[in-house]
Amino acid sequence: MTNDLITLVTELDRELLDLYGQDTALFEELTGLQRSLGIMHGDRPICPFLRPYFLSGSDYREICRVANVLSGAFDAMTIATLESPELVAKLGLTKMEERFARFEPGYASVSVTSRLDTFLFDGGFKFLEYNAENPAGIGDQPSLERLFTHIPRVRQFLEDNAHYLPKPEKKLLEALDRAYREFGGTKLRPNIAIVDWAGVDTRSEFVILCDYFRSQGHNTIICDPESLEYDGKTLWSGAFEIDIFYKRVIIHEFLERFDETHPLSRAMADGNICMANSFRCKIPHKKASLAVLSDDRYQRLFSPLQLEMIAKHIPWTRRVEFGPTSYDGADGIDLIELIRSKRHRFVLKPNDDYGGKGIAFGWESTESEWDDAIEHAVDSTYIVQERAVVARTDIPVFADGEARIESLTVDFDPFLFMGEVEGGMVRLAAGSLVNITSGGGETALTILNEY
Fold this sequence. Notes:
Helix content is 38%, strand content 26%. The chain has helices at 3-20, 24-37, 57-81, 85-91, 95-101, 140-148, 152-160, 168-183, 203-215, 251-257, 263-270, 282-285, 289-294, 304-313, 335-341, 367-379, and strands spanning 40-41, 44-45, 53-56, 113-121, 124-131, 163-164, 192-195, 220-223, 228-230, 235-237, 240-242, 244-247, 274-276, 317-319, 324-327, 330-334, 346-350, 360-361, 382-386, 392-399, 402-417, 420-429, 441-443, 445-448.
């Protein structure tokens, strides 16, 4: 944020507290709206904020540019992995994940829809994870925007300042349709199935997307993988003929229950279903993909521009395993000893999990807790990543009948659609773990064009 933008937003926050600091009727209205609009995680409304998150147009454009370059780097790594047993092992792919990744999707992109989880800081940003599989939050932006139309001072602020409200749900549908056309589909308005387990906490978002797809002329259903049938030519859910399979079910959860005999597996093997994202997206989705990008041993996989962006925007990351590594310009360093001796610099993450599960922060751990975390990481499949500089933002929050300014960790997670950014998920939390599943909040994104 520029100083001028910080000043502008700080003044808005002061006015919001002056106007609405004790406005319990407004707080109840905003909470009720979230329930009616489906802006929920399970039973919990996710936006306790009195305004959107404001990002300068210049920062947004730079994030878009870099994300596009790095999307190409992840794609290049994915293609190389299909030809490299060494990379398959480094990424921690299971035998079944590898087999399913070889199903040809029928379109060029590895990930039709993806998300880069990003921390902003003064003068820059780092991409900490790549959700290449099935990012949540795409349907939230329009509903979150509607919340703030009920706050008069926010409405006035937006009228007074040139701004852009992203449309990720529109870009998602365009990308799904483009993948379908590349796949060979010819229907003017193909049928779409949004597929995940029944009862998941993110179902409210599926309803939002389902309604949007239908409003654009696409017959759409939400269904469970258990409901699928395949007749050797077409994939069905009951009487619903599926043209586009919008996969929201997590691949490793699917493969824990099913194998090559499942209707979806057979349809993919036969090349008879346009599935987005395909099973191939599991390759870059592994957190160890950042270890491949940031390790000098694999520079041959990437273009000079990709290497430049990797060096600037991907933190040092390694798969946790015994042996030497390079760090801070030095080679031949014992990786486990490095992690143990400099715990304040590192975070440990499971290679393939979500919702903040299994993460250990060295700077928040005692020595014995960190030793236990390292032992668990060695015995499992983990990565270690260098701590990124993290910005905190002041934002008005309402809770317990009053509004107050809180200083929260913020991450802005741009959505990519076939490598192009449109909007992003803005999550805020009090601690180091910024995650909706772990209790964090979310607000709308607004780009202020003139800053």
